[in-house]
Amino acid sequence: MHLALFLIFAAVALAGAANLLLQKHPINAALSLIVVMSSLAVLYLLLGAEFLAIAQIIVYAGAIMVLFTFVIMLLNEGVEEKTHGSRVAKLLGFPAVTVFLALIASIILSSETHLGKVIIGESITTTQDLSAVLFRDLLLPFEITSVLILIAILGAVALARKDEQ
Amino acid sequence: MSIWLFLLLSLVKAVLVTIVFLMGVAYTVLLERKLVGRIQNRWGPNRVGPFGLLQPLVDGAKSFLKEDMIPSGVYKPLYLLAPLISLGCALLSIAVVPFGGPMTWHGMRIFAISDINFGLLFLLGVTSVGVYGIALAGWSSNNKYSLLGSMRSSAQMVSYELALGLSLVGVVLRTGSLRLSDIVSMQTVHGIASWNIFGGGQFFAFFIYLIAAFAETNRSPFDLVEAESELTGGYNTEYSSMKFAMFFMAEYGNMITVGCVATMLFLGGWSSPLGDLIPPPQNIIIQALVPLFWFVAKVFCFLFLYIWVRGTLPRFRYDQLMSFGWKYLLPLAMLNIVGTSLWLAIRP
User: With an 8 Å Cβ cutoff, are B131 and A66 in contact?
Assistant: First the structure.
């Protein structure tokens, strides 16, 4: 059951990601991204991370992507402009990406013993467990991250503000 | 319990609840037309059936038989997808609502389709995805009124979602669980005194939720999305026949869902206002039906309030709506969280 669900939603996520790249119209691309995020949420759920799964839906699929579609609707962007791109990017880009992915994969595989692993459908991390980690063991990093986000908001406001003249 | 029995039971519950829910939607429309009629000193629909009770069926048949026009300028895939998203999200949220007592059969709750750990968050998630129905409908219609309506609604729903979510935090803090059945069963003991709105001290949170929920469902006095005098009809201007009816059903479905959430979180869900003063009845069927009755009665009161407000209050101006949401409602919701946390910490 869990494996079947995993395969279905992994396929949906990959199809959405491919569609995101292939679509010509920005709003279709944005909607494909929502599909990818929602299926990722199901994959989190299969791994037992229930809070993460629903936060993925509320924050990413619900809030951030609404802003994306909002901007696309507001600007009423048409069909994308086709550029040829540089030859260097084509020649070097794909090998570089392959090397980078291989590097990440090898690092993750080599440190698998420290990181530990989760088997699909094995256990559930409840919201209580998560909050115990976030607000007790990792309190300082968590709070510092929120200050970082606050600084980012202030920066955005400062950039967006008109000069008073 | 085998997985097949689980699937079969879930399917039966889902089908039954969906049918009842859709009937509820149809009769909420009738209730609204009747009540607004009485508020405006006229009769409302009273020709079809006794007291106009068959009006929803006739309305349904009418919108089903009308010509389904698709304007030539629309962006077709999204134009067709938008009403499905709206109605789908409206129907999905009832899946986690425990609408009756905690009776089980073969280890499954009878009066709830599913009882998941993060039911409250699920409801918020479904609401936040429901924005797309209106947003895409307005954009894909290729009509300036539709686009303006959907712009307003996206901005309004995203803004008020924050206040809505934060107003519920107090209840979650008090219960210590996001599971809706836990939140309800916490309020069952002493009747009205242990409901979150009174005994739980969530009186302000209830009103913040109420206001935010009115805005979230795009209902009067926050119905700028379909302000007839300015936008002819808002996001659904270009829709006709069943597709229009789907938006309509989604709106009333969301009203019922909001009523269910308010009932569960603040008004004690399926519990009786008298608590344990009345001993539970002996007959198992009556024992099952009494909680159902209380739940439906509370949701009905909420719907009545919705319609009453619509018949009474004029519409907000758009800048007033935004500044009210961000400058008053959101800080108040945060104050409520701080207050509830302090109270829980100081309390022995």
Answer: yes
